[in-house]
Fold this sequence. Notes:
This protein is mainly beta. The chain has one domain. Helices cover 10% and strands 43% of the residues. The chain has two helices and 17 strands. Strands 4, 8, 9, 15, 16 and 17 form a six-stranded mixed β-sheet that branches.
Amino acid sequence: xxxxxxxxxxxxxxxxxxxxxxxxxxxxxxxxxxxxxxxxxxxxxxxxxxxxxxxxxxxxxxxxxxxxxxxxxxxxxxxxxxxxxxxxxxxxxxxxxxxxxxxxxxxxxxxxxxxxxxxxxxxxxxxxxxxxxxxxxxxxxxxxxxxxxxxxxxxxxxxxxxxxxxxxxxxxxxxxxxxxxxxxxxxxxxxxxxx
Length: 195
């Protein structure tokens, strides 16, 4: 069944003249050092909603690199929030209420090592509202749906110490990062939906 669905998608794309393999151009914010770790946000230069039901999955990642001399643990649960700024210049925090919490990992970073933490982001066209919507989740169980307009946008990440006492809940091989700050923004363009 899965093979049939993929074949049908490829056939539809071929008949419409669309390329069968999407082409992504990555963009990354300038790295910013905050208390021994370096943060940047990566995404794709153009965000386009898919004409298929459910919309298009987008690439958005929080990149964390240890620039210090010692290992550090970076908890991913409730230590950052993503802020979207649209063509109107107004920042919107992408977050949602959680019905339940999914515990996300603590990442151990040796000196000079990095990790790209993927976020769940989808752009879709709503037939109900006749507008594009951004579905966002930081993988902790919460989700938000935010209307977006075509045009130039940017994302940045606001970082904060973990509100939970991770040390009391387990033994970690390195100290927990407890910095605070904001990454540099990364710019991208949201394309208008196809008619």
